[in-house]
Amino acid sequence: MAEMTHTNRVIHVMFDDDLKLVGAAKRLVADGIQIKDVYSPFPIHGIDPIIGIKRTRLAIVSFMFGALGLSLALLGMWYFMIYDWPMNIGGKPSFSLIQNLPAFIPISFEFTVLLAAHGMVITYLIRNGTLPGMPAVNPDPRTTDDKFVIEITDQENPGASTETMGVLFKELGAIEINEKQLAKK
Question: pLDDT digit string (tens) for 169-184?
């Protein structure tokens, strides 16, 4: 069976102000146009629900890494201080984790925070594809300085093109409109 190649168009609409971008996003979504992504030099608060991005589950992942850190810290301290090599330090009993727990709280807390923070950062980088060595996906380098871009794909909006929507984009305050053809197998 022969492979079929489909053409996928991507439209990048550039703005010079974040308020214009938010207004344009609201209008486009109200007109039934799905926005794939927004590129910005800084976070635009309130844009996520407008373009349909769901709330992140990163806090749940952080909690799971923190619980793992707490468990590993308590298991390690039990093994090192009670099971493997019990030591009499300051007259504390060395045969029970419960009786030594107050002394283990600082280490448990620190290890919980360590694993939660590192696990959350690594999960974030993997999920967003921004680990060192991964290729960056940015339609225009000016979005890292002072410009804002809305990305609209033909896959989510069949028939969308710069010819059909160019007037609307200019009306919404766009300063530049680019359309790219991406070959997709």
Answer: 888 888 988 888 876 5
